[in-house]
């Protein structure tokens, strides 16, 4: 049995942990591993039908999860920093990317600039056939360096 502590966001994250047996994040040394976060509102369990809003919620979920994990692990969060300030790489998985390539690229660039105004994380965007929950069109994963 590992001694790692695993964490999940309230609401949807906890439901997934309890029902499917997976967590949202874990810290290993100076690295945080964050699994895919979608654009679902974790408390209302609703996903906006508007792509821009879904992407915004996914970015917010990543931020909230990073800060929650740091807090639960007793890590100091530098004053004025957001969770995104720790992100070094962003992976985006989008359903039907080939039909919305320009919109998706522009939307992602706007969000990266908004959530990472002081650095430019590495970024990969991949089109996928589907995600595990049919109402989700985007899933984000991030790699985080805590040094």
UniProtKB/TrEMBL annotation:
Coiled-coil residues: none
SUPFAM superfamilies: YjgF-like (SSF55298)
Alphabetized Gene3D superfamilies for the sequence: RutC-like
Pfam families in the cross-refs: Ribonuc_L-PSP (PF01042)
Superkingdom of the source species: Eukaryota
Name of the protein in its database record: Endoribonuclease L-PSP/chorismate mutase-like protein
Organism: Aspergillus pseudotamarii
């Amino acid at each position: 049995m590992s001694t790692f502590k695993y964490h999940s966001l309230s609401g949807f994250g906890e439901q997934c942990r309890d029902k499917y047996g997976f967590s949202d994040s874990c810290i290993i040394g100076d690295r945080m591993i964050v699994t895919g976060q979608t654009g679902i509102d974790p408390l209302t369990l609703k996903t906006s039908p508007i792509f821009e809003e879904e992407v915004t919620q996914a970015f917010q979920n990543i931020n909230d999860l990073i800060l929650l994990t740091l807090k639960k692990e007793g890590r100091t969060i530098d004053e004025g920093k957001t969770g995104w300030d720790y992100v070094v790489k962003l992976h985006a998985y989008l359903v039907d990317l080939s039909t919305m390539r320009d919109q998706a690229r522009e939307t992602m660039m706007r969000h990266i600039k908004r959530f990472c105004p002081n650095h430019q994380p590495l970024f990969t965007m991949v089109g996928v056939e589907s995600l595990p929950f049919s109402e989700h069109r985007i899933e984000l994963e991030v790699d985080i360096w805590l040094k």
